[in-house]
Every structure is written in C-alpha cells, then in structure tokens.
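Posting this for the archive.
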Amino acid sequence: MAAIDEKLTILLVDDDEDFLFQQRLQLENAGFHVVSAQGRAKAEEFLAEHRPDMAIIDVMMEHPDAGFILCHRIRQKDASIPVILVTSVNSETDLDFDLATQEDRSWIRADAMLAKPIRFEQLRREIDRLLSVKK
C-alpha cells in the first residue's frame, strides 16, 4: 500500500466512458488517486509497469469475460491486490452469480462483486472494507 502521506491508487477499468468519468470523479473526491483504463488491454498495459492498491473492474468489456480474465491476471501478478468486480450481467442476462458460494469464489477470484448500477456509498463501503481505510 501507499505511504500514509500518499493517496491510494485505484485502477478503474470499464469500456463505458460515462461510468469511468462518474466513478473517477467520485473516487478522486473521496481522496484516491485514480487511473482509469478503457478496457482490459489498456489495464494490462498499466499493470505491466505499476501496482495499484486496488482494482475495480467491469465484467463485460471487449469480450463477455474480459473482466474475469483481467481479475485472474491480477491475481497471478499479485494476489494481495484487492479486486472489486462490477457488472450489469445479472440484469442483462438473468444469469445470477456472486461470491456467496465456494464454487463461484473458486473461479471468479474477486474480493467483492457489485451489480450495476452501483451507488457510490455501496462502493465506498467495499473499498473501505478491503483496504481497511478508516473514514
């Protein structure tokens, strides 16, 4: 993690420019340094040279499973980086998966999963829980 006097860095990955803009603004206003990447390929370029304190990743981007793949690659590189997956898969496809079962946790590999649209308060609670940041 970053030193006490430095801002924590969050890698925010989504193919939706509006989502990136909105979440980036809210996260920066909450005191985080945000690096946004529009898609898995851009995120992997960043990860090749940097280590964020946390990653927030959309599930469906260039490919329907791009977020899952990116999450897996982050785990391979550094399993200590907390990952939150955000998705509208449930509402768009009627598929229902989360981290409630051991089976889902075995292949999803994220620390938390939130359904879009997400409220910032909900996202902030997960960030605080995973980073052990006191408000």
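The longest strand covers residues 9-13. The mean pLDDT is 84.
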